[in-house]
Model the fold of this input.
Amino acid sequence: MLRCEAPVHRPHSLEDALVLRAELPGATILAGGTDIMVYLEAGQLRPTEFIDLSGVPALRALRSITGGQYYGAGLTCTDVVRSPHTHPLIREAALTVGAVQIQNRATLGGNICNSSPAGDTLPVWLALKADFELASVHGRRRVPAARFWRGYKKTEMRPHEILVAIIVPPLAGYMHFRKVGTRLAQSIAKVVFAGRYVPGIDAALAFGAVGPVPMRCPEAERALIAGASPAEVAAQVEKEISPIDDVRSTQDYRRKVAGNIVRTWLESR
Done:
């Protein structure tokens, strides 16, 4: 039975949350808790105390801003699925996170900060060239999604910081999201992909679960912009990614599936 005696601090404003974070840099941040509860049950996490952000309304904002859209890090997957203002690529990714019960709890910020290479939403932020807004009692700063994940379970966040928002710029192009797992729901991705393409101008081919961090394929993107065929772009994707064998799949399967996803998408435009 799940049991944890660590005290839980529950701020009700962002200002209070940032003060707590400064005072308790070693505390575990709790947003939706969908991953943390699993770690606790498995004995993989032994927190000394929690900072529960679920009661901070400012973290659940979703609005248009100059130069794009602002997504509060505390928005749940259900929040973004239901909002008419959500970017279609983000909505597609949110719909693949667990089942409805998980989507009701899981947050955008939790998915990002958990820093799993198989996180369902992570390639989307890369494809959309998003910035992550980090805050502390000392101020705010933005980190591009492309620089946020440093390694498995490692991020650019500092101990006194909280992820407060994701900023998505307005981008054009053909877009596509695809997750491949054992089942349609409640399945960890074997391969997850988010793509964006403006013919002859710009492209983003972003993957999760095919390397230690979510990644783009810059050589394949350049080939696509230059007019390479879907088969040629897919072959380059297979060269650039670095999947592994694990309990969910093999590196050969992941490599072939990643290439097939890209080829099929480009051929269907």
Residues 174-268 form a domain with the Enolase-like; domain 1 fold (CATH 3.30.390.50). The chain has a mean pLDDT of 94.
